[in-house]
Amino acid sequence: AAAESGPWRFVANCEMRRAVLESCEDQEMRREMYKMLPARIETTEDNLEIISRILAMRFDWARDVGYDSYADMVFESRMATQRQAEVFLLHLQNVSLAAARREQEELAAFARERGAMSVLKPWDVAYWQTKRQAEYLKSSGFDLAAFFPLPVVLNGLFELVRRLFGLEMVEVEEAVPLWHESMRFFHVVNASTSIP
Fold first, then answer.
1. Given phi > 0 = left and psi -120 to 50 = alpha, else beta, which region is 51?
2. Please, is 180 exposed, middle or buried when counting C-beta atoms within 10 Å of its C-beta (0-12, 13-18, 19+)?
């Protein structure tokens, strides 16, 4: 076994799936990871029965108060009617579909120019989008990290946590065992009481 040739073991969660789909050069491995996660969350017979009961109860509730469907009843109290929502979604589809197809064709051309041998499959899209973005940023000389230096990001994050939750992050200066020398250790402290 080797890092380059495997075998590898992946945890089937969303974060790992995304990492593999965006970074793995092996198309077959991307395909397996793409198809693996939905298989973990298949609907069981028990869930189907529960969902069917919920839908039936919602339908009965809507009929009892004079609506043709639960959707009609829910849309009554919303800012848009069901018809307005459908019109909006149709308009959104009409104005965005051409751009989406153009972007898809551009991505496919980019992949072909770099050796992709087949039509892009759903498990290929994130990989080639990541490659394309990295190449664009490199060729344009754009360095995203320059806009987000770590001290500025940490100060912004800590200020947000303080304002939202009344918590302060206090860096611990004494020696704390860390797994890497670049790591820093913070106590989370209640800002009003100064109690960790």
1. alpha
2. exposed
Residue 2 in this model has a pLDDT that exceeds 80: no
Signed CA dihedral, 171, 176, 177, 181: sign only? positive
Q: At what angle do helices 27-40 and 122-139 cross, to 10 degrees?
A: 120
- Residues 14 and 4: their CA atoms lie apart, in Å, by 23
% of the chain at pLDDT higher than 90: 40
How many C-beta neighbours within 10 Å does residue 100 have? 10
Single-letter amino acid code for the residue at 5: S
- Name the pTM for this structure: 0.54
Mean pLDDT across the chain, nearest whole number?
85
| Alpha-carbon span 21 to 14, nearest angstrom | 10
Give yes or no for a cis peptide into 7 (omega within 30° of 0): yes
101: Cβ contacts below 8 Å, ≥ 6 apart: none
Tokens of 190: 């209640």
Contact residues for 119 (Cβ-Cβ < 8 A; gap 6+): 108
φ and ψ at residue 40, rounded to 5 degrees: -70, -25
Q: Within the chain, where are the H helices?
A: 14-23, 27-40, 45-64, 70-76, 82-113, 122-139, 150-165
